[in-house]
Amino acid sequence: xxxxxxxxxxxxxxxxxxxxxxxxxxxxxxxxxxxxxxxxxxxxxxxxxxxxxxxxxxxxxxxxxxxxxxxxxxxxxxxxxxxxxxxxxxxxxxxxxxxxxxxxxxxxxxxxxxxxxxxxxxxxxxxxxxxxxxxxxxxxxxxxxxxxxxxxxxxxxxxxxxxxxxxxxxxxxxxxxxxxxxxxxxxxxxxxxxxxxxxxxxxxxxxxxxxxxxxxxxxxxxxxxxxxxxxxxxxxxxxxxxxxxxxxxxxxxxxxxxxxxxxxxxxxxxxxxxxxxxxxxxxxxxxxxxxxxxxxxxxxxxxxxxxxxxxxxxxxxxxxxxxxxxxxxxxxxxxxxxxxxxxxxxxxxxxxxxxxxxxxxxxxxxxxxxxxxxxxxxxxxxxxxxxxxxxxxxxxxxxxxxxxxxxxxxxxxxxxxxxxxxxxxxxxxxxxxxxxxxxxxxxxxxxxxxxxxxxxxxxxxxxxxxxxxxxxxxxxxxxxxx
Length: 482
Fold this sequence. Notes:
alpha+beta, Uridine Diphospho-n-acetylenolpyruvylglucosamine Reductase, domain 3, five-stranded mixed sheet
């Protein structure tokens, strides 16, 4: 059984189909049709809901952390121990919520189909903002698409909703909601079981290891932003899943003198501060990693584990020399991330083995990263590049150059590195290294970019890296190219 709050209503579910998304649960099981399906792939934001979780702030105070999610990519099992808020829950005692009223007064809606998603993103923004901030508003709404109005009136609604925000029913019930969430906090493995399909929800790494050993055919579910597409886009059935999002050990970020250790189930939003503090380019890239809804849901371990050749984090982590800790039963092994990827969607992971954490070295001063995509926000990379050179007295002593989108896996450019290692750091060396990239990669052409464009972009990014290190004041990191 799993338990969660639907606004303030306690829901206990056991026999639901584990492949059921929160979107379809709301619409088909509860008759709450305000949440819309636009794309079923996490791109349009029409299905946005907000999930509240217990959270302890830096001062040790218990709070509810509200985050926007794409309900079309969220399986119901991931709600275990949390609070689900949909657009129907905002109106209170006959009065529109302040974010709804702002949308009305600022003329932020026309056909209205996308409006519930915008309202929920604005609600989450209001809960997480103390004052109007245009940058945060753009970030909060980047994952919501509108075909009618343009975005100026919606951004005006964001400013109005976050300026002198009034107390709402969620504020007045906060203590009560905290108490209710604590009362339903999971204490043992939860389960959804429809007879022919099941999803297990363990609470510890040890329990996960035991379950995965017992069900080696199970699919591990973390954020679900990639896995859920198998259900929503390809109409496949997932007979057994194991949800790892309630394992606190796998959501920790620990900082040591020489490294960060990031639990594989840590959301990309939660990774941001630690990675940005150490490597601003990594932080900039995370700002452009899909939408805020996806970053609130997707995990660093999932972005590695799905072995996509266009995942944004692996090239950066490979260039930094990151490692992963793999767990199987009581056995753990540490593997260089670059050795994890073998071929297209093929990895070195053994049966019943899972990524427990990612180890990211600290202290890499000349690390830079760049993302090439058609759109600045909420778009997949055509090419993602990361550079990490050690330069002593003008001579390159160690070069790590990694790319995504250029091959069947994220990988290092070994021929390029061979040219750079031991050479003088100058434009002639860079041009030789650019030529060597043609030996490292034979990229494919697809709807994102042609093979010629990809190779030329990769070469130009190396040139850009050289220019920025020579003249850091003109730096423009993680730039989008059109």
